[in-house]
Specification:
The protein has 281 residues and is mainly alpha-helical. It folds into 2 domains: 62 residues; 150 residues, no CATH class. The protein has a 3-stranded antiparallel β-sheet. A hairpin with a 6-residue loop joins strand 1 and strand 2. The protein is rod-shaped and about 170 Å long. 21% of the residues are buried.
């Protein structure tokens, strides 16, 4: 068998070795450049992270300084303290405003259109003759003087006005108010719960009739008569006789003072914050 073999020349081998060395050097240079690039990138990244951390720390310190300054301005005498974090349930936060308890009182008014628009008890009658000097003087008159129309009329009118005022001291008895728009009209509270407009003169007469009915009841009741002093009982009986004889005259003489009383009662209700009920007249 014949084998053909071509031997490389010595110059070719040397050039191949030199070319191989050049390529190896180039690869080495490229590798070093790549290493330097990677190192520079890593260093730049580290620098950026460090700068970010420094900026965050500075911002945090600035925020803490602002908070401390605010606390110092709002409470210069006290230093802020940091409480340790507790793992227990949070304590209840105290209320900034104390709780307000609103008390409501419902008053049931006696109806104007009941049996009588007003009621008077024995204790009020006794107090009237003890505290009102004019009525006390009336009880000390002789019986014929108590029944004398000229002497008795102003005293009977005074008794009517006094007992109306004492009865209206109880808020539930205030079922009549003088109209805020017309002094010749009054507002009365009916069984239906509505307020109605009535003429003043007729309302004054009904108030006086109610007081006269209470006087008549007391003088006929053995239990209530025993509670009254003798002089007061005699004067009360005399006043009842005089009113039954001249109801228009006595109620007319009491009317002016009763209107003044209702006006005062209306103004007191307005001052206390009660809105007067308006009715179309």
């Amino acid at each position: 068998m014949r084998q053909n073999c071509k031997l490389a020349k010595t110059g070719d081998v040397e050039r191949l070795i030199e070319l191989t060395k050049a390529q190896n050097e180039k690869i080495t240079q490229l590798t070093k450049m790549l290493e330097r690039t990677v190192v520079a990138a890593v260093e730049a990244s580290n620098t950026l992270v460090c700068n970010s951390l420094a900026m965050s720390k500075a911002a945090a310190e600035s925020s803490n300084n602002m908070i401390c300054n605010s606390l110092a301005v709002s409470a210069p005498m006290s230093s802020p303290t940091i409480s340790p974090v507790s793992t227990s349930a949070p304590a209840p936060v105290p209320a900034l405003v104390a709780p307000i308890t609103i008390m409501q009182q419902n008053i049931v008014l006696c109806p104007w259109d009941g049996r009588y628009p007003i009621d008077v008890n024995t204790a009020q009658i006794i107090a009237a003759f003890e505290e009102n000097s004019l009525l006390k003087a009336y009880s000390q008159l002789q019986l014929r003087q108590q029944l004398d129309r000229t002497m008795a009329r102003p005293r009977v009118a005074e008794l009517l006005v006094d007992l109306v005022k004492r009865s209206h001291a109880n808020p539930s008895a205030r079922n009549v108010f003088l109209s805020p728009y017309n002094p010749d009209k009054v507002l009365v509270h009916m069984k239906s719960g509505q307020w109605m407009v009535k003429p003043s003169h007729s309302a004054m007469r009904l108030l006086c009739d109610g007081v006269a009915a209470a006087i008549h009841r007391v003088t006929l009741s053995p239990e209530e008569r025993q509670a009254l002093p003798k002089e007061a009982l005699v004067a009360l009986s005399s006043a009842g006789f005089v009113y039954r004889d001249e109801p228009e005259v006595c109620s007319g003489m009491a009317g002016k003072k009763l209107v003044e009383h209702l006006a005062i009662m209306r103004d007191e209700a307005a001052k206390s914050g009660i809105n007067m009920i308006t009715v179309d007249e």
